[in-house]
Specification:
Elements lengths: L1 H11 L17 E6 L6 E8 L2 H6 L11 E11 L2 E2 L8 E6 L5 E8 L7 E2 L4 E8 L2 H4 L8 E2 L7
Parallel strand pairs: 2-3
Antiparallel strand pairs: 1-2, 1-9, 3-8, 4-7, 5-6, 5-8
């Protein structure tokens, strides 16, 4: 419980240490993932943020992002999560994902530069950030299955 509270607190105030760089991180490993939707499988190329230092910066400072790209944050075990949009210049859909790869909740069109806390409704293992409005356009809904190597065997 203490670790979860500490991690949530750090995520909530992330950006302070990296705010001096003002540069997006573009050199993370990538993976192709598929999300089941009412329109059929939707493919995304995502950067994998698996380490704290990568998760701390996330998609900050991006001026744009191609429509079927995003960032997948792997927290390695389910926990309560909280995000904000500090230093994030583009609107994002934030998909909170359970350990079995199903979407728990979607925070649609998170407002750029907002300091408002966006919390998961339950403990989640991962978060996928994609362009704002993309989940609705592709009919990706709560309960959708995300196919990624981080959920294999679950």
């Amino acid at each position: 419980m203490r670790l979860t509270i500490a991690l949530v607190s750090v995520l909530l105030f992330a950006g302070t240490a990296c705010a001096g760089s003002n540069q997006p991180q573009l050199d993370l490993p990538t993976e192709s993932i598929t999300i089941d939707s009412a329109l059929g499988p939707q493919r995304f190329k995502v950067q994998l943020a698996t380490e704290w230092s990568e998760q701390e910066t996330g998609l900050m400072y991006r001026q744009q992002m191609p429509p079927n790209e995003g960032m997948l944050f792997d927290f390695h075990q389910p926990q309560a999560m909280s995000f904000w949009m500090k230093n994030t210049l583009i609107p994002l859909d934030i998909l909170f994902i359970r350990a079995d790869g199903t979407v728990s909740t979607i925070a649609a069109n998170a407002k750029p530069l907002s300091l408002k806390s966006i919390k998961s409704a339950e403990p989640v293992q991962a978060v996928l950030e994609i362009n704002g409005g993309r989940a609705a356009a592709l009919q990706i809904r709560e309960g959708a299955k995300v196919h990624s190597t981080i959920f294999q065997g679950r």
